[in-house]
Backbone:
């Protein structure tokens, strides 16, 4: 076995042991992915996407000089210590972040800083699969619901549909719409941010433009969700909840997300054109 294969074998063995040590955290993550109304159903695909990006760089990785960075071992030890404390306290969110850092530290220690540099994005893209704490989800959801309610009511009034808001309820003369948790837009925001980060990595523009493109996914996700609520409110006013809140409601959510991603691609094309 040559030196490179031996180093890869050592890294793979250490990574496998680390994954075993993180089993409670991984189990928590899978439970969150599979939960009803999960915001992270897409997270199952994240490791495969990261692996594919790394595989695309296989020729560059073969030519990367091998080295052993001892500070990588320090990163591993420090993160494992944090993980043990978090696992004991069942703070799995922080533990999940340390798992990614452990993998990065193992790459540094067994394969060297050049390999770590090449694998920086596919490794740190794994952060996007770590679910936010439920407390944070609840706080963000409440704020998004209230903002979406106010914004949708503003649009409705501007286009001639008189309405007022009552918390997360839009009241019209002959109907009302409750902007509940699924309509907060958080699911589409998380999904679009993940897709946005991935797309930003591949687009050939300057780093400031990459940052603009990635951040544009936030207003796009929020605006398209407001548009969805406006459409639902109008349909509910004309045809009643049987039409507005039935199958159409879920189908509309799917198409609105497609529209949001299309808008994101439009921003990307605009940035590419100006970059050229």
Residues:
């Amino acid at each position: 076995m040559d030196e490179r294969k031996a180093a890869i074998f050592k890294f793979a063995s250490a990574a496998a042991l680390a994954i075993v040590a993180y089993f409670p955290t991984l189990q928590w993550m899978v439970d969150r992915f599979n939960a009803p109304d999960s915001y992270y159903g897409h997270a199952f695909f994240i490791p495969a996407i990261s692996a594919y990006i790394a595989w695309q760089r296989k020729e560059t990785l073969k030519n990367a000089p091998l080295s052993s960075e001892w500070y990588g071992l320090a990163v591993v030890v420090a993160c494992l210590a944090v993980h043990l404390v978090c696992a004991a306290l069942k703070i799995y969110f922080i533990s999940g972040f340390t798992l990614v850092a452990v993998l990065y530290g193992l790459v540094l220690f067994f394969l060297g800083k050049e390999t770590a540099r090449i694998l920086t994005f596919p490794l740190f893209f794994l952060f996007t699969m770590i679910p936010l704490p439920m407390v944070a989800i609840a706080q963000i959801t409440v704020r998004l619901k209230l903002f979406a309610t106010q914004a949708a009511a503003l649009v409705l009034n501007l286009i001639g549909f008189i309405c007022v808001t009552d918390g997360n309820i839009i009241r019209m003369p002959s109907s009302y719409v409750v902007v509940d948790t699924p309509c907060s837009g958080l699911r589409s925001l998380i999904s679009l941010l993940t897709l946005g980060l991935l797309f930003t990595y591949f687009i050939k523009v300057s780093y400031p433009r990459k940052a603009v493109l990635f951040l544009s996914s936030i207003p796009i996700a929020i605006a398209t969700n407001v548009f969805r609520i406006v459409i639902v409110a109008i349909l509910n006013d004309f045809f009643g909840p049987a039409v507005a809140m039935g199958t159409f409601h879920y189908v509309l959510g799917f198409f609105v997300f497609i529209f949001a991603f299309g808008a994101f691609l439009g921003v990307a094309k605009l940035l590419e054109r100006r970059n050229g």
Q: What stands out?
A: The longest strand covers residues 169-172.
